[in-house]
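Appendix B: complex inputs.
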Amino acid sequence: MQIDLNALRDDVIKISREVGKFIKHEQSRLGTQNIESKGKNDFVTYVDKAAETLLVSELGALLPDSGFITEENTVSQEDKEYIWIIDPIDGTTNFIHGLPLFSISIALMFKKEIVLGIVLEVTNDECFHSILGGPAYLNEKEIFVSKKKHLADSLIVTGFPYRDEGRLEAWMHLFIHLLQNTHGVRRLGSAAIDLAYVACGRFEAFYEYGLSPWDVAAGGFIVKQAGGTVSDFSGKDNWLFGKELLAGNGLMNAELMLTIEEKFKL
Ligand code: IPD
Ligand code: CA
Ligand code: CA
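Resulting structure:
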């Protein structure tokens, strides 16, 4: 790798904060006429599209021969050594309903390995970030996953299934089990923030199915850099493109994995 990841990270954080300001400003002006439906419970606004266009142009300028995997498909070049994986607004449903929890998620892959990840929680200006080989940070402070060992002491976060209902029943069984055996289960509405909060120890674990690479690339990477684990529901490494993800502090994985296996009959 020929690039200075530290310097690149600083530039990416700067760019994401600029785009974050734009997104925050537009939220107050948003009307129902600005909301388009891409499918069942899948929305997009001109702000998602404009934010993505800005990110693609500015990140492309930082690394001229890079490709992109982006939610709103402004560009798509997946055959490059460097590939940016971008969700311009993770948490669009929150965004259009005037809720404050949404994020910008940016990861960079080099030869199919993630080397940089940034999740900017826009409203509170909390920037979670890391580069390969380095620690994970929340703004300037180093972060670590939680040290709690038992599910009984944990707070878990998830995403409710709302498109692919095929596994809804299994998901409900798991949900009930976790409600009965943890401090509680939360649903924030932005997978990137869910993962970032696991990375800094606010949650012990996050699970969801039906996710896309732009939802999880940056956050999943940051969890790992903060000392946690990320896998699919079978404990394998296929979490980026595999459409299911379990992330946690690694200390209650066996217990969680067993429950998931049992409820999803893997
Ligand atoms: C969604 C959010 C949500 C998760 C969905 C994602 P979007 O992304 O991450 O938390 O449950 O699966 O699609 O559509 O707001 O970018
Ligand atoms: Ca998303
Ligand atoms: Ca999005």
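The chain has a mean pLDDT of 93.
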